[in-house]
Amino acid sequence: MVATPIEDLAPRSEDEVREHLKSGKLVEGLQHMSPQYLQGIRRILTVSADTEFVSAPAYLRAAQHAPALNNFGSAMSIVQDELAHAHIGYRLLGDLGVDMDWLIYERPAAQFKYPYAFDVPLDSWIELVAANALYDQAGYVLLSDVHQSSTFGPWKRALAKVDKEETFHLRHGRTWLKKLVKDPAEKAKVQAAIDWMFILTLEWFGLPDERKRHGIQLEYGFKGKSNDELRQAWMAAVVPFMEEIGIEVPAHQEGERYVIDCAFPRAFDEASKTWGEKIGWEDVLVRWKARGPMNEAYVSKLQRGYRTTSFRR
Ligand SMILES: [Fe+2]
Ligand SMILES: [Fe+2]
Fold it and tell me: Which of 48-52, 209-213, 299-303, 305-309 has the lowest mean pLDDT?
């Protein structure tokens, strides 16, 4: 891949971008971008598109356990939505000078930038619907924030559709969980799934604010809320719902805020999907960087058709 240098693609100076944004205008394309803006928007779009993309094989694999054919159909429509969401992100990255074939089909699995949670397999229908209730809720919180705050016009507008579909995904999860908890045996399985998945989704929002400065991301309006604010928004949606259906989670409300009740961040055993002792964020970064058990398999599944049909390589 011969990539055009970012300086040649984004003609504006940082001051010009600040002026443009200050006058209340959106950034509509490369012609309005500075190198820093371009780099930043590419990064956040890549994380978002990769997350949507990898959720497809993760959900597809778990959908095999659907209790009935019509349930499999609902799961498939979610998978289709996720692929369409990924397409929106990658298409925009193509407009921003990124080689889409490389990005989607040739990039090594370890270079994909989705949250670690998706590297841990969803092994049952219960884990799939729990993912809809937790992971799609996280996606919804993140994307609603981008939808509200983004200064990049084409993405902001596209997210109106994505937001509605994510609402359907998380409602799918909640409806199923509500139904499952009525049976004590199923309820115990839901509790077991939430036990490992809840903390993994807390991690999804990244380093705490005192560890990470978001300067450029907030200043250029790639997002509106900080990591900790997004984590709070997610807990505010998930914790009351879990209380309502009688599922225990290690967090509770204190005044306006939600407080995490367990050691966090923690060591995670991938094989048994269990949490261990408290660790530092440096150790979490090591686990994230190493990627988890499904990384290779999912990316290879997504790239298989290209490998067998492309004449480019
Ligand atoms: Fe999505
Ligand atoms: Fe989704």
Answer: 209-213
Distance CA 106, CA 15 (A): 36
Give the C-alpha separation, 38 to 17, whole Å: 11
Torsion of CA 103, 106, 111, 116, to 10 degrees: 90
| Tens digits of residue pLDDT in 243-264 | 999 999 999 999 999 999 999 9
Q: Are 190 and 131 in contact (CB under 8 A)?
A: no
For residue 253, what is the enclosing H or E element?
A: strand 251-254
Query: In terms of Cα–Cα distance, which of 77, 83, 64, 156 is closest to 305?
Result: 83
Enter the tokens of residue 232: 């709070």
What Å distances lie between residue 216 and 21, 43, 45, 50, 313, CA to CA? 13, 12, 15, 21, 37
Indicate the helix (H) or strand (E) that contains 274.
strand 274-278
Separation of CA 230 and ligand 1 centre (Å): 17
Query: Tokens 């995490």 — which residue?
Result: 260
CA of 129 to the centre of ligand 2 (A): 11
Residue 132 CA, ligand 2 centroid: distance in Å: 7
pLDDT in tens, 124-179: 999 999 999 999 999 999 999 999 999 999 999 999 999 999 999 999 999 999 99
